[in-house]
Amino acid sequence: MSDVPILPSGLKETVSDGDVDVLIYYLGCLAQASYLVRDRRSKTAFVVDPRRDVDIYLQDLQSQRTRLRGIFLTHVHADFVPGHMELSRRGDADVYYGPDMKSRGCCDVCEVVDGQ
Q1: 50 and 36 in contact (C-beta within 8 Å)?
Q2: Please, what is the average pLDDT of the chain?
Q3: Predicted structure pTM score
Q4: What's the CA gap between 43 and 51, in Å, rounded?
Q5: Secondary structure (DSSP) of the chain
């Protein structure tokens, strides 16, 4: 385990490059990371592999006055329940997934392929 302390909010680190911030959330009990990728210029963001408790993302989006544009699921999560359905509903955003995942038919899902 890293010596980097986990903040109470679950936010471990923010990495910035130009107008883009990547907020890294780490859920220690599951060794699971999720990410909020925010464009400061357009004030829009995507969440990657959200955990079940989505309030943390919604609070950060609201505090930065940033609009959620979408949610990416990188793979099927057999070890925990992801929060993509609730975040899609509460954040009014589409869910995107890779070509190897199949939609469960539970919400609007957009397939993403290489080059998009």
Answers
A1: no
A2: 80
A3: 0.76
A4: 22
A5: --SSPPPTTSEEEEEEETTEEEEEEEETTTTEEEEEEEETTTTEEEEES--S-THHHHHHHHHTT-EEEEEEE-S--SSS---HHHHHHHHT-EEEE-TTS---SSS-EEE--TT-
